[in-house]
Amino acid sequence: MKYESQRIAKPYFVFAMMLFAGQILFGLLMGLQYINGDVGFPYIPFNAARMVHTNLLIVWMLFGFMGASYFLVPEEAETELYSPLLAKITFWVFVVAGVATILGYLLVPYAELARITKNELFPTMGREFLEQPTITKIGIVLVCLSFVFNIGMTILRGRKTVINMVLITGLIGLAVFYLFSFYNPDSLTLDKYFWWFVVHLWVEGVWELILGALLAFVLIKVTGVDREHIEKWLYVIIAMALISGLIGMGHHYFWVGPPKYWLWMGSFFSALEPVPFFMMVVFAFKMVKERRREHNNKIATTWAKGTAVMAFLGAGVWGFLHTLAPVNYYTHGSQLTAAHGHLAFFGAYAMVVMCMISYSMPVMNGRPQGNSVQAQKVERIGFWLMCIGMLGITFALTAAGIWQVALQRIPEAGKALSFMATQEVLKPFYIARLGFGLIFTAGVAAYFASFVVANKNGKQYPDANATLAE
Amino acid sequence: MAEKFTKSMARNIYYGGSFFFLLLLLGLSVDTVRQLPKREHREALTEHVIAGKGLWETNNCIGCHSLMGEGAYYAPELANVFDRRGAGNEAAFKSYLRGWVNAQPLAIPERRKMPQFNLTDAEIDDLADFLIWTSRIDDNNWPPNVEG
Ligand code: HEM
Ligand code: HEM
């Protein structure tokens, strides 16, 4: 670690991982509710569990991106963070706002939460992923502003590397597009049209910039490959991401009101969206192959390669599967959507955060060459169990989705099975999904255990740099 | 990548490409926003429909159901529930919806449960108006059949 203030990343990562654990717990609960509707009812109805699951996901992604930026930016800029104090205050504000909101979801009915938080004064609640009370949304904006300001000032003060510039562009985009969550018009079609300005322009737009920057940073660190080379790749990747992704948003406008031209525009441009993800795979493997040094943090390299591959599978392959209008006509809003949502979110954004953690936590703990061999072994088990678990979830939901389309959507009216009857038939797939969910959970447990192992035998891995870092 | 392809060329593609497509997106958005009133029948967007949308949101219906294919996949699609259950008759649909919402949760073991929201009849009628209005949006003929 080059700069003392990078250490502020640690609480962000630790808290992100705690939220991750919570997210998985509620995922398992929903997995059970899919099989037996009585589980948890009426105390935690499915909709409450789902809000908690997806909101924890989003919030831990944000904590992860923030932690990653606080670690990465000073190192790239070659200067201390502008204000470590502000970063600490922001952390606690975000923690309090996040925990209070999740408790709100769980402790009172949603309508009651809307009343308590005076939603009627400025209604923004009740839309998927944007369920946060308006006051929480304002809190998130303030947290993002403070964060972007702190990061921005640090970059202004220091070296403006391509990685830093791409990262800050992504972070500003994240903050700016979130503002659309305050726009909730009476017209449902307008509402839906601009809802995607948050959701799509995040995950298939500016978040890809963040993903690319974080991946490039870790690759530079573990491979020692020439920066010029990596920067060129980074530019091409993010160029392709935005060129395909901006108009690619049309794949969400097929069946929710917008005009017909989106059918072919959305299909064409979104069909190009896998390209940047494929380039990330080539990029990661090429850099590792051309590495100039042997870094002992092998597992961080595994995470970097794994992120590229799983993001390509989840976003690229599973995204392409249902992105053409004639296919999407049948698969829209089916279990196939959920299959893709899971593999894409996990493969791209959950994994890139864990990749950054895997590289930076040992550094912050005074082990610049990575954790002990035992700890890395345990982490590797976690890595594989999570990947296998998530691929299993994806296959189970994909099979469920295809079967759902075959029973419920393709037959003509009269012959088609109703939604509820179809769900009954799909139960075996949901049982399989739950099984893979348990494997995934075991992976998370192993991953957490690796931190304990690392701390226990932290001194077993002495190396030349260790004294320099402290 | 060939050596002739330099970093500054890559950067220019990034800046030029994203700027161009951002402008295109803006243009298309302006056009879409202009066309939506006709496609959604904005003239029929009454106070009741608006109130219904509010109730839809504050009760987090989207947490279980999908609406025009977006939302959760735990419970049936509702953008076409008027077509499915109302058979084109608004009064019949309203009385169906009152009966349905008030009967929740159904006491069928292991069946997925819909909570009891304690809504008044007037509120349920607003929700019905919202769902009826939604069912008439021009959505390029989705879903494929009435089952949603
Ligand atoms: C890492 C990047 C991505 C993430 C995290 C992601 C995540 C998601 C999520 C969560 C949804 C469901 C949204 C909802 O609840 O309505 C979704 C829908 C969709 N995604 Fe992605 N996605 C990514 C990239 C892509 C790419 C690259 C493509 C196309 C090649 C794609 C194609 C689609 C399509 C067509 C839908 C709509 C499915 C439907 O009609 O039901 N996604 N995505
Ligand atoms: C034990 C593991 C997990 C289980 C059993 C699980 C289960 C579920 C269930 C049942 C839903 C609701 C689907 C519906 O609306 O009907 C859901 C939604 C979702 N989950 Fe998970 N989940 C798990 C892990 C994860 C992970 C690791 C991620 C991402 C990193 C994730 C991201 C999402 C997203 C983005 C949605 C919304 C999908 C959409 O709208 O299409 N889940 N999950």
Automatic annotation (TrEMBL), chain A:
Residues 1-402 form the Cytochrome oxidase subunit I profile domain. Its main location: membrane. Keywords: Electron transport, Heme, Iron, Membrane, Metal-binding, Respiratory chain, Transmembrane, Transmembrane helix, Transport. It comes from the Bacteria. It is a multi-pass membrane protein. It holds the Pfam family COX1. The keyword RNA-binding does not apply. The chain crosses the membrane at residues 12-35, 55-73, 85-108, 135-155, 162-181, 193-220, 232-255, 261-285, 306-327, 339-360, 381-403, 430-454. It is found in: Membrane. PANTHER family: CYTOCHROME C OXIDASE SUBUNIT 1, NITRIC OXIDE REDUCTASE SUBUNIT B. Belongs to the heme-copper respiratory oxidase family. This is Nitric oxide reductase subunit B.
From TrEMBL, chain B:
The keyword Heme applies. It holds the Pfam family Cytochrom_C. InterPro entries: Cyt_c-like_dom, Cyt_c-like_dom_sf. Keywords: Heme, Iron, Membrane, Metal-binding, Transmembrane, Transmembrane helix. This is Nitric oxide reductase subunit C. Residues 47-135 form the Cytochrome c domain. The chain crosses the membrane at residues 12-30. The gene is norC_1. Coiled coil: none annotated. SUPFAM superfamilies: Cytochrome c.
